[in-house]
Design brief:
single chain, about 300 residues, mainly alpha, Rossmann fold, 2 domains, three-stranded antiparallel sheet, two-stranded parallel sheet, about 55% helix
Length: about 300
């Protein structure tokens, strides 16, 4: 810009002649009209631009001074911040062991709480089972205690009834049927030293059938009143759903002997509800009536359909 201004001043100081910018003669120069070669205008523009640049340089210098001041302030503040950060880190490291210990203790407490809750649940279950057992024992004691007004049977009658049931079990070839007696406390049979009610459901079913048949036989033999017929529901359950080896009769012929015994009756009747078919020799008897639940074959049920 300074070069343009000085060159413009020198050009203005020259004597009139051919224009060095546009080449016009003195006679053809139009000094009152602006053109691209107006030296005064170029000088004025150069001076204005120079002033603008000087102003920007001054502002830039002021900004640089301000930034340098801030940098010096940061240089003074940075060591103090580093010291504070180091102190905070030291405090965190000092608290870390206690935090780890507290976290471990909390985990142990949570595990102990879970263990205590599980034990409390077990204790509640045990208390509930004990309460149920006491209730069952109380009910059993009430059942075993004769009610007021209950007729007590003579021991001779009970012994004869027990021998009748024993004879029936032996006829069926029931295992361990050598000793049968009636227990007055439980009002039930004891077979070979085992209470009838304490056996599996299969054994309870077949021995209950023996009890029912024995009662009918005892009344028939001693001319005691009896309807003359019995209804047995699933007496051979031990053949279909045994609960264990002590409750399984599938290795014996109790089933065949059971039906053979009943087939000998002529003045008594037994209605048997069972899913196991009797032997064919029993089904072929004239006294045996098989309910088929099939309207096209045999008798449909106890009550005939039209």
């Amino acid at each position: 810009m300074d070069g343009i201004r000085e060159a413009g001043s020198l050009v203005a100081a020259l004597s009139p002649g051919v224009c060095p910018l546009c080449g016009a003669d003195t006679d053809h120069q139009q000094l009152g009209t602006d053109c691209d070669g107006n030296v005064d205008q170029v000088i004025a523009a150069a001076m204005a631009e120079s002033a603008k640049i000087e102003k920007l340089r001054a502002e830039l210098a002021q900004t640089v001074d301000q930034l340098r001041g801030e940098a010096q302030s940061f240089d003074r503040l940075l060591p103090r911040l580093r010291d504070e950060l180091s102190g905070v880190e030291n405090e965190i490291q000092a608290q870390s062991p206690d935090l780890l210990q507290m976290r471990t203790a909390y985990t142990e407490l949570v595990e102990k709480r879970a263990t205590v809750r599980a034990e409390l649940t077990f204790h509640e279950q045990i208390a509930d089972l004990e309460a149920r057992r006491e209730a069952l024992e109380s009910a059993s004691e009430r059942e075993s205690t004769p009610m007021n007004g209950t007729t007590e049977l003579p021991s001779v009658v009970l012994d004869r009834f027990s021998r009748t049931v024993e004879a029936i079990l032996k006829a069926w070839r029931f295992p361990e049927a050598e000793r049968v007696h009636f227990e007055e406390a439980t009002r039930d049979l004891v077979i070979a030293g085992k209470r009838r009610g304490s056996r599996g459901k299969g054994m309870r079913a077949i021995t209950h059938a023996a009890f029912t048949i024995g009662l009918l036989e005892f009344c028939h033999q001693n001319s005691q009143p009896h309807p003359g017929f019995i209804v047995l529901d699933s007496p051979l359950l031990a053949y279909r759903e045994p609960e264990g080896t002590d409750d399984d009769l599938r290795g014996t012929d109790v089933q065949d002997q059971f039906y053979t015994y009943l087939a000998q009756w002529t003045s008594r009747q037994a209605i048997i509800i069972e899913n196991v078919d009797p032997p064919q020799s029993v089904r072929d008897l004239d006294s045996a009536l098989f309910f088929t639940k099939n309207p096209q074959r045999g008798r449909y049920g106890l009550f005939p359909i039209s």
